[in-house]
Amino acid sequence: MVRDIDWKNGRVTLDAMYAEEDRYLLSSGASRKAEMLFERGYATLDESVSDYVAGRVDARLQRPSHVFGWFDPVEPRPHAVTPLPDAEAADLLRLIDSFLVHPRGTYLARCKAKMRRWKNSWSR
Predict the structure, then answer these.
(1) Would you call 60 exposed, middle or buried from its count of C-beta atoms within 10 A (0-12, 13-18, 19+)?
(2) How far apart are CA 55 and CA 19, in angstroms?
């Protein structure tokens, strides 16, 4: 991990990140003694191929959750909700109308159409 960059003198100080190998991380370590690397030449620092976030995300996704059914791409199963009162739905539509958007207004039109579809589905 980059600890310091000295732009004036062209030096980078790194700290070792220790990691045991798993599905997302390559094993890593460091020398037992501090040492200067690449004293006579140049080196490149590239993005790590290890993914330090993916393991936590994967662990969370492996635990059961009540929301998984919401995101099923074939048959989504969101929980039933109480419809919004007409006055609250109207307030939300006014709020959407107040947003500044791209001049063509394509995003705004999609939001309003979706809200109207939701409102119509509640009244069935």
Answers:
(1) exposed
(2) 12
Is the CB of residue 30 less than 8 Å from the CB of residue 44?
A: no
Q: Which two tokens stand for residue 41?
A: 């030449």
What's the DSSP call for residue 53?
A: T
> Between residues 36 and 27, which one has the greater pLDDT?
27
Which is more confidently placed, 69 or 37? 69
Mean pLDDT of 1-24: 83
Residues 18, 124: Cα–Cα separation, whole Å: 58
The residues, any chain, with a CB within 8 Å of residue 23's CB and separated by 6 or more, are: 54, 55, 58
